[in-house]
Structure prediction request, 414 residues.
Amino acid sequence: MQSGVSILLFCPVFPYPESDGVSFTIMETVRRLFLAGVSVTVLGMHPPEHTPDLKRLPENIKRLADFVSVEINLQITPIERYANFFFDNASLEMNQYFSEGTNRVLMDILDREKFDIIQIEDIRLTKYLPAIRTKHLGKVILRLHNLLSATLPVGRSSKISQAIAKENKKRVQERENKILLSGEVEEIIAINDTLQSTILALFHQAQTLKVPWLKIIPVQTLCVGWEIEVPEITTRTQGIIYTGTLDYPKNLKSFERFLKNIWIPIHNLYPNITLHVAVRSAPASLIENLKGCGGVIEGDIADYYGFLSSKTIMVVPMYEPDGWQKRVWEGMSAGCALVVSPQALAGIPATHGEHLFIAKGEAEFARYIGTLIEHENIAHTLGVHARRFAIQNGKGESGANNRLYQYYQKLSQY
Prediction:
């Protein structure tokens, strides 16, 4: 079924393989667009060390869309950070996804094909909006997976580091608010109800303050769901699992924070427990650090659910609501005893102490992990309850995909 509608998804990652919440959300959207009969082009970005081989994508992925990817270096050096703080008023985070090379590829795509809708998958990609508007006369939709200003790390090492972090957050927030409130796009999609409420509160506050450039636009919640696989449970060994991707700075920073402030103290208390890090790759320095503190990089896992089912504990220590709920569902369906941050849990109606442990800070994270290591009966009970909860509730997430399908089907009627 072809609707005659064409959409460009402009993404901050290349969404295959689906190694994190953002890439999963994008790929599931591509699938729903395909089912709605919409012609899809995906323009993604990749770090230099992970150039996708587009010719070798699986056939079931190739048929969904035309995939294009451009290389971008997202590393910000300390020198760049200091120079920006003292000599520039712009935000490095808001500008880091802009490159002339990406702009050229984007313009080439827009020259070759006219799209009814362009959906931008990250607020930092709005830097390309002026160029997009020179070629594209249709709707531009911004989908938010999180608010960037809420995900920035706080400087801790020195007063100057703290000052830079505080100023950077202020710059990001100002630019973010300007984009959201001034109608630079025609519509905003929030990834969950919490994010939608936050954006609507920003609109309300701007109305109260009578911001002169305020332009209220539609803000929709459009969740993405998934079908939960329920693996066979194998014999478990005591160990801790972390899964995800460390290819992008924000994820790497979150993991390094977990390693330094939570895992290393845990390892000092329980030196026989291993941290199994299931990521595609990691910086050499991080791999060496892990070797010295009871951690190991497992790489890509062929039998992913079998791997989850083989260990007792899983941690999801992410500090931003960025699609990590999928990792939580996976761990629960595998019967792991989970310790998660509130941000990672966002939207999952699991109960603290019954289905998993919700750690509201680093001290709680360490305490709950210690409890699960010392009391295997608690870990077992938590895992059993988590698995039962996933079996009973996980399939309901597919309803979100029905709403996703209906949304894009409605778009096809324009």
Summary: The domain at 237-394 is CATH 3.40.50.2000 (Rossmann fold). The chain has two domains: 6-224, 237-394.
